[in-house]
Amino acid sequence: MKRILFLLLTAVFYAGPAQAGIDETINNITAPIATFIGQVVFFKVPIAGANLPLVVLWLVIGAVFFTFYMGFVNLRGFKHAIALVRGDYADPNSAGEVSHFQALATAVSGTVGIGNIGGVAVAVTVGGAGATFWLIVAGFLGMSTKFVECTLGVKYRNENPDGSVSGGPMYYLRKGFEERGMDGFGKFMGTFYAVGIFIGALGIGNMFQSNQAYVQLNTVAGGALDGYGWLVGLILAAVVFAVIIGGIKSIARVTEKVVPFMAVFYCVFAIIVILMNFSSIPMAISNIFTGAFTGEGVTGGALGALIIGFQRAVFSNEAGIGSASIAHAAVRTDEPVTEGYVSLLEPFIDTIVICTITALVIGTSQVADPNFAGDATGVAMTSAAFERQISWFPLPLAFGALLFAFSTMISWSYYGLKGWTYLFGEDQTLQTIYKLIFCAFVALGCVVQLGPILDISDALVFLICVPNILGLYFLAPIVKREMQKYQAKLDSGEIKKFKH
Amino acid sequence: MENTVLLAVDGSDGSDRALGHAIARAKQGGAKVVVAYVIEWSPYSFNTPEENAQRHSRRESEIERANSEIVTPALLRLKGEDLECEGVVRHGPPAETLIDLAKECGAAQILIGRRGHSGLKSLLFGSVAGNLIQTAPVPVVVVP
């Protein structure tokens, strides 16, 4: 298998003239393709001088609708979500099943990725400080979308003959529509989503991650890895290969256990840096608010800032993409809506907490020294902001970025695979083919420039969230009923706390 | 219910000796013995998506193995002595779960075998018997 992968990659790498440098050649070949796909799928509507990508509009309208339709479940359900995660309602007799905490932790580590470090920097560079405000708003609204999709994920999951479970949008789209007597449409939507997620997994959950991990490694190495993207890519791909094809689960398990601690470590140091930039905090916060409504210096003004904020938020917390409902579906509960409650903590942790902290690190640094990062963007910019105060931090940050990227890639390889098996069945050979393609894209991500990768990833996200949100509108009444029934049981005392 | 004892087993020599002690005690006082095996597990661990997807079937096979290898043999011995007994297998943090079980079955006493780990090992990993002695609401008998 390894040889096939190697040959495949060498074929890709030596496709162009050797003298141009391997990285450059590949970039030259792929960039126009990516830009083209980006333009076609990622259709933009010019409004008031800003370009509004349809996908952003689609996601925002969805999130606003679900927030109102579910009666601000993102606010009302917050306390209950925490009680569920703490295990207050956990029946001791079902101990040993996947707990709410475990399902959330798994989903969060798939979500917390480079987007939280690098994506925020992209948002601030393009959309100004004001983008941060819209990022937070998007995170808040996204909590409702998550609630809907994760409730459905659990309700309509499949239990396989071997006792394992498969869930996610492809299952709830199909079964949900079948319940409404729309069999044909349900099948179509399920298939549409499955195709979207297995292709989409190659962008947001793959190339973007490996690209930014490489960039940060190169920054730490002082540019010594310039032109060696292909090498870093091959190494990364080999590790991913070892886990998802070689079955070396220990690597995945270790990553899964280290990532939460890295996230805490990251937040602690970020707060330290923000505090070190103490005198810049008021100005940074005021920039966020004024920028949000004036959009000073941003193409498209306030609307431009809003678009960028929403775009990066969705990219980071994945609300509306439906991916997390695949992970949440593993939880075992009689009340699917409980997992919905738990899942709304995910955009909160990911976007409202971690992304905001990153934005403040960058924001306060910008106030102190507008040119602190030079031309750097993405993760390199975040790294520079940390470096201003803590000179040695880029190194652990590179390590953290690598781990975040890695855990996100592992999670997404699983999401993509679920889409693939939905379409093609559990055939092992076919699964291996998908995994090989996935590894190849990990390597490719390190070679192509950030711009085209963002284009292609955004475009692919669009592909996934169109069928998902469309389905969510149709199925939202079911979720609402579940929520009301559950609330009634809580009120009547039929569902009790086990721990006091 | 007054005369129920909870016997914590783990398949070790110590737990075998505890079973012997339980039989002797139950014969004397006519007690009912609840044989409990706790599979160490925490709801707060971090797993991969795949581990989560397979968790349900894993749990069932863990319980089945605990029953067939540890709990059932103990129950057979108790039944052989004509004693009233029942078995239970549960996931959780060992000491805490044993205490919950003791409360649930109204046990008057908890019986547990000693593992006899060296000082350092029990310092690092803690000992279930030690934890029970500190936190159990009923008397704990540690069988050496």
TrEMBL record, chain A:
<comment type="similarity">
    <text>Belongs to the alanine or glycine:cation symporter (AGCS) (TC 2.A.25) family.</text>
</comment>
<feature type="transmembrane region" description="Helical">
    <location>
        <begin position="117"/>
        <end position="137"/>
    </location>
</feature>
<keyword id="KW-1133">Transmembrane helix</keyword>
<keyword id="KW-0769">Symport</keyword>
<feature type="signal peptide">
    <location>
        <begin position="1"/>
        <end position="20"/>
    </location>
</feature>
<keyword id="KW-0812">Transmembrane</keyword>
<dbReference type="InterPro" id="IPR001463">
    <property type="entry name" value="Na/Ala_symport"/>
</dbReference>
<feature type="transmembrane region" description="Helical">
    <location>
        <begin position="54"/>
        <end position="72"/>
    </location>
</feature>
<feature type="transmembrane region" description="Helical">
    <location>
        <begin position="460"/>
        <end position="479"/>
    </location>
</feature>
<feature type="transmembrane region" description="Helical">
    <location>
        <begin position="228"/>
        <end position="246"/>
    </location>
</feature>
<dbReference type="GO" id="GO:0005283">
    <property type="term" value="F:amino acid:sodium symporter activity"/>
</dbReference>
<keyword id="KW-0813">Transport</keyword>
<dbReference type="GO" id="GO:0005886">
    <property type="term" value="C:plasma membrane"/>
</dbReference>
<keyword id="KW-1003">Cell membrane</keyword>
<feature type="transmembrane region" description="Helical">
    <location>
        <begin position="392"/>
        <end position="415"/>
    </location>
</feature>
<keyword id="KW-0732">Signal</keyword>
<protein>
    <submittedName>
        <fullName>Alanine:cation symporter family protein</fullName>
    </submittedName>
</protein>
<feature type="transmembrane region" description="Helical">
    <location>
        <begin position="190"/>
        <end position="208"/>
    </location>
</feature>
<dbReference type="Pfam" id="PF01235">
    <property type="entry name" value="Na_Ala_symp"/>
</dbReference>
<feature type="transmembrane region" description="Helical">
    <location>
        <begin position="436"/>
        <end position="454"/>
    </location>
</feature>
<feature type="transmembrane region" description="Helical">
    <location>
        <begin position="258"/>
        <end position="278"/>
    </location>
</feature>
<keyword id="KW-0997">Cell inner membrane</keyword>
Automatic annotation (TrEMBL), chain B:
<dbReference type="InterPro" id="IPR014729">
    <property type="entry name" value="Rossmann-like_a/b/a_fold"/>
</dbReference>
<protein>
    <submittedName>
        <fullName>Universal stress protein</fullName>
    </submittedName>
</protein>
<feature type="domain" description="UspA">
    <location>
        <begin position="3"/>
        <end position="144"/>
    </location>
</feature>
<dbReference type="InterPro" id="IPR006016">
    <property type="entry name" value="UspA"/>
</dbReference>
<dbReference type="InterPro" id="IPR006015">
    <property type="entry name" value="Universal_stress_UspA"/>
</dbReference>
<comment type="similarity">
    <text>Belongs to the universal stress protein A family.</text>
</comment>
<dbReference type="Pfam" id="PF00582">
    <property type="entry name" value="Usp"/>
</dbReference>
